[in-house]
Amino acid sequence: MFNYYATNKNTWADSCFAKQYAKNIGLNPPEIAIFSILKDKLSGRKLLDIGVGAGRTTPHLLEISRDYKGVDYSLAMIETAKKRYPEVNFQVADASQPFEEKDGAYSLIFFSVNGIDSLPHEYRIKALREFNRLLAPDGYLVFSSHNLGFVPGILKPWSWKRLHPAPMSLLTPLRIVKRMPRWIMGMWRCAKNLKHVEKYKEYSILNDGTEGYKFLQYYISIAEQISQLHACGYSNVRPFGLDGQELEPSQYDSRNDIWITYLCQPVRK
Ligand SMILES: C[S@@+](CC[C@H](N)C(=O)[O-])C[C@H]1O[C@@H](n2cnc3c(N)ncnc32)[C@H](O)[C@@H]1O
Q: Which spans in 135-171 are helix H?
């Protein structure tokens, strides 16, 4: 079976993404909601920010605790994060590999903006189990993942909106000419990746158009993500929508947010 792990890892290694992500600041609404719940509980404790990218989340987590480490498997991302925050502990590390820290070392593991969706299914399960091992008994895992309920909303590669997302204006012809090569390249990549798309009842691996169809991404329904977390040894799973609202079970099937942010805790006997 095709393993898209290397494709995604090589793509993230491209320094163009580090430049792009270095512009990002601020937390998104579900992160704001979750950290307002966790702030006091995590004060001064050990935090691990996985897939930290260029450090968008770093200053926000440092406000909670100075005992902070940011890791990413892209060297370009880590170098950029180090330039932005030279005093911070950043390291290159891959979430699909075992970490060197001992059991229960961290009070928070945070894997933001769907970084986990770059991992194939088996690697994802291994990573969730490893995070569980690394978490203190009263620790928290916070991560986001693409939502299967959004899939009908994914634009087709040939969609006009992909070529021209802005409202019509005098600049429209100019914008179209500028975007045309990327649009055509996207359709070509999409056609090439079609054979790697996998659709199961529980989850799908999709080439959804992210960054010009360069990535294959894991999409999972809310109910299935909760079951997957239970199977990996977590409880108290709380999903949050893009608007920052915590979701009720009655909303799970109807939510079409592109991604959902999950807060959960390891089960300890
Ligand atoms: C969408 S970016 C988000 C970056 C940052 N968290 C932010 O919110 O700006 C996803 C990040 O996860 C990283 N990533 C993906 N899979 C990873 C893995 N297995 N181990 C470590 N980092 C990973 C990528 O290199 C990328 O920097």
A: 160-163
